[in-house]
Amino acid sequence: MADKCDLCLLGLIILSSLLTGTSGYDHVFISFGENVSLSCNNALSDCNSTTWIYSNSFSDSAEVDLITGGIKNKDSERHERLSLESDCSLNIKNVTEEDYGLYTCRQYVNGKQGPDADVSLHVLHVSVSSSSSSSSSSSSQTEISPGHSVTLSCQLYTDTGFSCDYWVRYVGVELLWVNQAGVDLKTDSRYQILSSSDQYRCIILTLTTTLLNEDDNREWRCQLTHRDQLETSVRYTVKYSDPADTASETEVCVSAGSLYRVIVIIVEMAVFSAPTVILLQIICARRAGRKDSKHPEEIEMPTILE
Predict the structure, then answer these.
(1) Cα angle for residues 201, 206, 212 (degrees, 5° grid)
(2) What average pLDDT does this structure show over 144-155?
(3) Which of 205-214, 247-256, 266-275 has the weakest average pLDDT?
(4) pTM for the complete prediction?
(5) How far apart are CA 280 and CA 278, in angstroms?
(6) Cα–Cα distance between 194 and 143 in angstroms, integer?
(7) Residue from 101, 90, 79 nearest 39 by CA
(8) How does DSSP classify residue 300?
(9) Do the Cβ atoms of 154 and 234 come closer than 8 Å?
């Protein structure tokens, strides 16, 4: 019985060493939208023989050559975000949740393949949904109103071939929702926090709460820790619309509308009064013409009574 337990313990130690990178298998945790550099542990002085290969067990293709002989493969969907450093490290700009998976640095010496250097990239991503909107967003700041319910979903995308249970129980990977002071929100009853997983996301930690007036500019963070050491985090900030700005915009709209109506009235008056003005001008002109056409002696003088 003791022998079986020893074998089980040995197996767990080996598995843990594989997952934590102590056997040449590196793990990198990064947040959505950040830049990352993946090291090639077998780097040579010349990167012209370096090849970087990407694989993901959930993708349609088994392997994708990102870098071949030190040159980027333009057929790769992410080639514009890739670059090769002088030490043969692979740089990825603006990481997305689709970048998670296994990256292999392979080099050749005198035409012979050397040992591979494997790096597993894990991506942390947060999506937002609220009761006032039917769609979700990846924005780190969303303008919504107090009284609405908001759900923040923190997701760890990983592809290691091992179950999430091993990651949590034996590798020590954990997700936490904390406030600005770093206090775990599980201790606050106003937050509902649930953990789950699916085929693509090893750990999903959702936070749901109803927003209060004092939540304006409040920040929440999803932290990823590995053996109690912070690896990466994603921030979310609540931002309310300013009622004063809304009122000011309304006043501007009302004033503009009133001015428009005044202009319309003036134009209408001008249009309808124009014929009258013209007619009066004609009558005055005719009367003035008649007076000018009379001879001085034809002007009747009043009779003076003696």
Answers:
(1) 155
(2) 89
(3) 247-256
(4) 0.69
(5) 5
(6) 24
(7) 90
(8) -
(9) yes
Q: Are 58 and 199 in contact (CB under 8 A)?
A: yes
Per-residue b or e along 10-38, where b marks 16 or more CB atoms closer than 10 Å to that residue's CB: eeeeeeeebbbeeeebbbbbbbbeeebeb
Residue with tokens 């007036």: 213
Distance separating the N- and C-terminal Cα atoms of the chain: 160
Q: What is the pLDDT of residues 154-187, one digit of tens each?
A: 999 988 667 777 778 888 899 999 999 999 999 9
3-state secondary structure (DSSP) of residue 23: coil
Q: Which amino acid belongs to residue 63?
A: E
pLDDT tens-place string over residues 95-121: 998 899 999 999 887 778 888 899 999
Alpha helices in the chain (DSSP H): 2-20, 164-166, 243-293
Look-up of token digits 């649930």 = 194
Name the burial class of residue 107, with classes exposed (0-12), middle (13-18) and buried (19+) by CB atoms within 10 angstroms of its CB.
buried
3-state secondary structure of 154: strand
Distance of CA 60 to the CA centre of its chain: 26
- Tell me the one-letter amino acid at 125: H
| Residue 9, pLDDT score | 35
Pick from 145, 158, 148: nearest CA to 239 = 145
- Range scoring the smallest mean pLDDT among 10-14, 92-96, 111-115: 10-14
**Amino acid code (one letter) for 179:** N
Asked if pLDDT for residue 16 goes beyond 50, the answer is no
Bin 138: left if φ > 0, else alpha if -120 < ψ < 50, else beta: alpha
- Span 136-146, average pLDDT: 65
C-alpha distances in angstroms, 207 versus 15, 121, 182, 197, 236?
Answer: 31, 25, 15, 14, 11
46: Cα within 13 Å, side-chain hemisphere: 6
How much is the pLDDT for 302? 45
Residue 150 reports pLDDT greater than 70: yes
Q: How far apart are CA 111 and CA 74, in angstroms?
A: 24
